[in-house]
Amino acid sequence: MAMQQSTVRLTTAQALIRHLAAQFIEIDGERQRLCAGGFAIFGHGNVSCLGEALYEHKEELPLYRGQNEQSMALAGIAYAKEKLRRRFMFATSSAGPGTTNMMTAAALAHTNRLPLLMLCGDTFITRLPDPVLQQVEHFNNPALSVNDGFKSVTRFWDRIVHPAQIVQSLPAAINTLMDPADCGPAFLGLPQDVQGWVWDYPTSFFEERTHFIRRQMPDETEVAAAADEISRSRKPIIIAGGGVQYSLAWEELKNFSQKHNIPVVETIAGRANLVHGDPLNCGPIGVTGSNSANILAEKADLIFAVGTRLQDFTTGSWTAFDQDAMLVSLNVGRYDANKHLATPVKGDAKLGLTRISEALGDYHAPEDWSDFAADETKKWDNYVDGNISPVDSAGKNRPMSYAQAIGAVNELCEPRDRVVAAAGGLPAEVTANWRTKTVGSVDVEFGYSCMGYEIAGSWGARIAQQEKEPDSDTICFTGDGSYLMMNSDIYSSVLTGKKLIIIVCDNGGFAVINKLQNNTGNTSFNNLIADCNIEVEPFAVDFAAHAATMGAISETVHSIDEFKEAFLRAKKADRTYVISMQVDAFDGWTAEGHAWWEVGTPHVSENTSVNQAHVEWEEGRKRQRRGV
Question: Which of 62, 251, 264, 611 is in Cβ range 3.0-4.6 Å of 37 for a Cys bridge?
Fold first, then answer.
């Protein structure tokens, strides 16, 4: 006779949290909880049941109270990115607007292939009290709620309608979060009544389990095909993406490039795959790239893409390469590996680079190609020297710029300090001008280009960083537009003792979009504050004073020398430090290194400059690669 299975009676919420607390992963020989805790804003949809369960596990799963549902989810994403997708955090919100506030963060996680577990309140399954507070009613579909909107921006989605359901759904969600190919956000809708319903759960569901990151071995046939393509090339380049970091493949990338004498260029997500000064590190590629990388891409006869989804800012909307250049793509994801008729190698970057290198044998790209790459890289390095300098070639002071601030921080920061930027003009400026001191030390969120990620993401990154490198700093670059959009996690960072150094570059509005507006022949309109529909004289926000009200130490500087002195004070400070500076909205942009980028322009206009810009823009399309 079969023995009766051991069970324990728990609510849905209690079982969910208990299972989550029992999951572990081994990192660098140390066993750690897979879920590092979470962020919560409680409301009627999650406070009484899920809140009760979280309280019982507050030691195992530390909980941080956010100030905004979107920003706390962004913090969770940035935590996972700093942890290279080996740990994750959850974010929980009440039903209604609290949940929908997280949809933007879900889209960011989905776009960037990053894990985030969302535990969101939902309407009652019984429907007895309908319509309830914050319920959006659908007259012809009573089962539909705002939570269904997350289906388009998550890798895993489920609504828990019975306590037994989480025995299947929760492990499936966790497996999605930890899978290199399918990694992305997971969403569990938790109806308010179901959260408190009880069931006799098998005790085995709560036994401790140690996870590991699956490494997909590439197929030998694909490896051979890739090696054959590469071995026939005379001018190959490697495009190194974020997947190199998630695979911990920095050494393999470096060894591969050195053994086979192949220049490496980096994507935005792949910044800091190689350190500055590596002889084959030829700079960032694409729309926000460098002359060196883009010249190499244009002349290359083979593109070896490693761990990149090849978004348009990397490929110059697919104009950066010669039409006849061959494309080989090593990626753990089938979808990404097969883009644009590439010769695909579907597998882990660390294993794939090793196997392809073995298959290449003693193949070595010609020295004249690597010499050419080195010369172009030196030219770009000289350009950056001038670009970040506060004085021009004649020794006169230049208007303060993003690049100058970036150069000053780069000069003074420690190797393991982490830099965070997102959206607007700063991602381009950081990507182009930053000189990497240590691999894996840069987070430029430009996959979803989400304004507001900067400070919230820095908070999450700092939580992760303090776990292993408490003496390093998290340095946030943000524009005035992003600051005004989402800044409340300055308060969060002070409350939780997670010190940030925040640099606010104030150019009086959305200056980079104003630049794009002007470059397409349009008149400045609704981007810079001065060009908006306002009824008073435009004035600068006192960002230092604002940050001080949230507990930060803060100051405003008026020169790069003052900025450097302030940054050194910030390094010594014991809590979040905000430095505000005004930068020029028109001059000081990095003018070199840009690939063509497809932007929709009017085909007809009464404005002659718009018509002329359209003609000039369309010229770039002639180089556009035609593929799938």
Answer: 62
Q: Which of 535, 532, 553, 533 is nearest to 544 (CA)?
A: 553
Round to whole Å and give the CA distance between 551 and 498. Answer: 12
- List pLDDT tens digits, range 353-410: 999 999 999 999 999 999 999 999 999 999 999 999 999 888 899 999 999 999 999 9
Residues 6+ apart with CB under 8 A from 363: 227, 230, 231, 260
Per-residue pLDDT at 616: 93
Is 11-211 a CATH 3.30.499.10 domain?
A: no
Q: 125 phi and psi, to 5 degrees?
A: -65, -35
- 4 pLDDT band, cuts 50/70/90, is confident
Convert the pLDDT of each residue in 416-454 to its tens digit: 999 999 999 999 999 999 999 999 999 999 999 999 999
pTM comes to 0.97
Check if the beta carbon of residue 322 is closer than 8 Å to that of residue 299.
yes
Cα end-to-end distance, the chain, whole Å? 59
Q: pLDDT per residue over 132-153, tens digit each?
A: 999 899 999 999 999 999 999 9
Please state the domain extents for the chain: 11-211, 220-380, 388-582, 598-628
- Pairing of the two strands 88-93 and 302-306: unpaired
* Mean per-residue pLDDT, 483-506: 98
Decide whether 11-211 matches 220-380 in CATH topology. Answer: yes
Q: Element (H or E) spanning 374, and its range?
A: helix 367-387
316 sits in the region (left: phi over 0; alpha: psi -120 to 50; else beta) called left
Write down the architecture of domain 220-380 according to CATH.
3-Layer(aba) Sandwich (3.40)
Q: Which helix (H) or strand (E) holds 209?
A: strand 209-211
CATH code of the domain occupying 388-582: 3.40.50.970
Where does 388-537 have alpha helices with state H?
402-412, 426-433, 453-468, 480-485, 489-495, 511-519
Sequence length of the chain is 628
- For the chain, the maximum distance between any two Cα atoms, rounded to a whole number of angstroms, is 93
Average pLDDT over residues 39-54: 97
pLDDT digits (tens, 9 = 90+) for 113-130: 999 999 999 999 999 999
Cα–Cα distances in angstroms (integers) from residue 615 to residues 269, 600, 609, in the given order? 32, 12, 10
Mean of per-residue pLDDT scores for the chain: 96
**C-alpha radius of gyration, the chain, whole number:** 25
Whole-number Å distance between alpha carbons of 536 and 516: 26
CA geometry: angle at 127 spanning 123 and 128, to 5°? Answer: 125
Q: Could you give the CA distance from residue 489 to residue 41 in angstroms, rounded to a whole number?
A: 13
pLDDT of 1 > 60? The answer is no
Provide the strand spans (E) within 71-208.
88-93, 116-122, 156-159, 185-191, 198-202
